[in-house]
Structures are given as C-alpha cells and as structure tokens.
Amino acid sequence: MEHYSEKVMDHFSNPRNVGTIENPDGVGHVGNPMCGDVMELQIKVKDNIITDAKFRTFGCGAAIATSSMATELVIGKSIDDAQKITNKVVAEALDGLPPVKMHCSNLAEEALEAAIKDFRSKNTA
Amino acid sequence: MKTIYLDHAATTATDLQVIDAMLPYFHENYGNPSSIYSISRITRNAIENARTIVANSIGADPKEIVFTSGGSESDNFAIKGIAQALKDKGNHIITSQIEHHAVLYTCKYLEKNGYDVTYLPVDNDGIVKIGELEKAIRPNTILITIMHANNEIGTIQPIRQIGEIARKHGVKFHTDAVQTFGHIQVNVDELNVDFLSVSGHKFYGPKGIGALYIRKGSKLTPLIHGGDQERRRRASTENVPGIVGFGKAVELALDIMENEAKRQTTLRNEFIKKILVTIPDTILNGHPADRLPNNINISFEGIEGESILLNLDMYGIAASTGSACSSSSLEPSHVLLSIGLTHEFAHGSVRFSLGKHTSQDELNQVAEILPDIIKKLRAMSPLYNK
Q: Are the C-beta atoms of B64 and B55 separated by less than 8 Å?
C-alpha cells in the first residue's frame, strides 16, 4: 500500500481536538460502521464564528487524520467560510492521501456539512 | 528500534542457510537444466534432489510434484487445470466461503466462464459445514477445493474427512496447504487429497517458488504452455535457485517442525489468554484449538484495525488486519464476515502470526503496549462508549 505523508502520521498519532463539547451548537454524525468509518463532529459557534470543534472517529489512519485536520481548519472560521471546506481542501492540508484513502476525506466534509446544517436548523427559528 | 515481526503468515525472511544453498545456482551453476551438456546435469540433479525432498515430506512420489511460481499459481493451476481437463464430465465445483483469494477469485472467474460454483458456509469457528458438503455434491461435480488452514483466522479444516467424502463420490479434491506446509505435518495419503498447493516463502524459503502435488493418474490441463519442462505439466525454464532454496527450506522446516509447533502453540495460547483477560470487549477469531500453531487473530470492539496497526508500527511491531481500510474495497475480510462477525468487530481485527524467531519476550512487550493503544483509540471512537 502507498504510505501516508508525514503530516497524516502527525495528525494520526497526535490528533487535535479529540472529544466532545458540552452543549455543542452543531453536531454532525456521519458514516457507517459497515464501511469501517464513523465520524462525530461537534462545533461551538459564537457570532457566526466557529470557536471550537471536537471530533470522535472510528476509522483508519486517514479517517482519524482528516478528522483532526478538519477541526483545525474550521476553528476560527465563519460558518460560511467553513462550509467551503471540501474533502480536497482537507486532503491537501495533509499533503495528500493515498488514492485508495481519498474516500476517507469525504467523511470529514460530510461531518462538517452535517454539523453546520444542524447548527443552522437550530438557529433559523 | 528493533522490529518485532509478527506477520509470518504474510511472509518470512529467507533463512541464511537457504540463501547459501541457492547462491551457487545463480552464477557458478547456471546451465539450463533441459540441455544435454555436463554443466546442465548439475542443475538438473539439483532440481530433482529438491523434488525428492518435497515429495518425501508429504508422502508423495517425486513424479507427482510440479514446481510453480508460488501458492497462487498452484491454486490457479489446480482449479483451472481440472475444470478444463474434466469439462466433458461436468461443470460444478465446490469450495468454501473462506478460501484465499487465489482460490476464491479463480472460482469466480470460472463462474463467468460457464462453471457453477457452490461456496460452502462455515461455522462460527471457521470450520466448513461438512453436512452441507455431501448435500452439495451432484453428478456433475468435478472438483472440491477446500483449504487446509485459513490464512486469516488459522482454523484447520477436517481435510481427511472431506477427502473421504470426495473419494466416496468419485470427485477430485484439492487443498491449499500454503499455511500448513512447513508448519504442521502434511501427508497427501492421510489427508486423502488429489492436489495440494504449497508455497516457499511462508516457511523461510524464497519468494516466487511453490509446488503443486498432482496425484498419479490425474488429468490436468497446463496453465503455462510452451516447452517440455516439469514433465510437460508446466512450461518455462526452471527457477533453479528458487527450487534449490525451496528444497533446503523444506529440509530445515522438517528438522524443527515438531518442537516449533509445540513452542509456538504454547506462546500463542498464553498471549491469547493474556489479551482477552487484560483488554475488555475483545474476542478471539477462529477455532480455539484446531488452529495453526502460529496464528493469533483478535477483534477489538469499537475501533478499526488499520489504526491499531499504525500505532503498533510506532513501536516497531508488524502485524496485519482484516479491516477494509487495509484494502481498496470498503468491505472487511470475507473470512471474518463468514464466521458471523458484525462489521464493527470485523473491522477491528488484528492478526499476529508467530515465527521460529518469535520470543516470549517479544510477545510480552506487545502484550504490555497493546492495552494502551486500544484504550487510546477507543477514547477517540464514537462507537465505543463504555
């Protein structure tokens, strides 16, 4: 198998922002244990800015590293800017992923989308 | 950091004595074994000597041994060869759901080419359901192919019994013995087999060499056409150094087999017990007793195999997994699903396979490191909330 970049290994072995947030403003829970990866992303939002993000992931090295990177990328961004973060952006921030692992980065994008959707649904009323 | 290599079922380091035996057959003794002159007699004799060693080790006649490029070729040769040779007699093949891909995908290929294949289920320990075998045999069944021991979970099949059933119904029987040959006793008459695949690099021989045992009088269409090598069973100039190394590896394996099987079984059982006791929500995959002496396969609930392997690798520990994330498909191992594991457990499997150099000390180190790795990953997992 093609090996992981140093950045992937760094985020895998020292994942940033692992855990859960008390009273999160948005939660995204995506993936399926059948496919071997599940990600839960929680965000805290203040004045439309994501002030904190935490994740928990069941998955391979790429899934954990992309989860970690995604949290780093969204913290400090506005909801609108965070929404523009695609799986490609996350993968590139990790100096790329082996081709067979690209699907793992979808997980982070989907979790982010779900968390933002959850946040918006709670804040449009 | 010293590597703790626990992936011997994947491959082994070629023994230095094997390499020494091979070396003269690259440069000094290079003659084409098919030629008539004296320097070719040396290589011819070396091949026949290796053939005799391999034949004797499984209770066969040297004429019944064909050297191949390895286990996958032997499996392909046996299955496609019989399918082709007996196509006028029938088109039905029986195999199991937990075969190595070299057998499974060969059967799938034949299915696309007009053959009919029955994939027998296994029980939760990975033993083929013998009762279903007899029911599956039809008048047009031409081959039963069931592996001797499973490469992932180590379960050893009741090959002798399966062979008896095959013989009773006049059906040819092939077994993939890649994981057992060189590790436990393999005898073609005791096992009632007509064809048996073996590979060199699983027991300290070189890669790229294997053999197929073909019982005398069996019809088999060649896979590789060309010259008259291997009694016209397999064309191609013989891999002389590989064959010599293969013979040497068999010799060395036989010398230590009994003691090693005992030693590894003890190490295996102690390690399994220790892990199951110290790490909660953990199960052993495969049969607890009828398993390869060197095979340990454990599933850890709520976490994924590749992430366990990467963590082990940071400590220099090499093992393997049945998780989907180790392959390009999203499906976890067909073997683990066939023994009834849920996807959560199937994705969290790790195989440790021991070898002749594996020490008690190495396993102690792994047993010490593993609980922390599992704990760390479970703390990160949304599927583990205990």
A: yes
Known active-site residue B325 = yes
**At B20, which CATH number?**
3.40.640.10
Q: Do A12 and B310 touch (CB under 8 A)?
A: yes
Identify residue B355 by its one-letter amino acid code: G
CB contact under 8 A, B381 and A58: yes
pLDDT band at B343 (very low <50, low <70, confident <90, very high): confident
Q: Which two tokens stand for residue B206?
A: 């070189």
> Are B286 and B192 within one domain?
no
Nearest to A58 among B302, B311, B326 (CB): B302
Given a contact cutoff of 8 angstroms between Cβ atoms, the answer to whether B84 and B91 are in contact is no
Question: Number of C-alpha atoms within 13 angstroms, CB side, residue B340?
Answer: 10
* Average of per-residue pLDDT across A73-100: 94
Catalytic residue among A35, A92, A100, A121: A35
What does the pLDDT read at residue B332?
A: 84
Helix, strand, coil proportions of chain B in percent (round to 5)?
45, 15, 40
CATH of the domain at B277: 3.90.1150.10
Contacts of B336 in chain A (CB under 8 A): none
The pLDDT tens digits of the residues spanning A16-55 come to 999 999 999 999 999 988 778 899 999 999 999 999 999 9
Considering only CB atoms, B325 lies closest to which of A18, A33, A59, namely A59
Q: What is the ipTM of this complex?
A: 0.92
Give the count of domains, chain A.
Answer: 1
- Whether A105 maps to a domain, the answer reads yes
B243-277 confidence digits (pLDDT tens): 999 999 999 999 999 999 999 999 999 999 999 99
Name which of B307, B328, B379 is nearest A60 (Cβ-Cβ).
B307
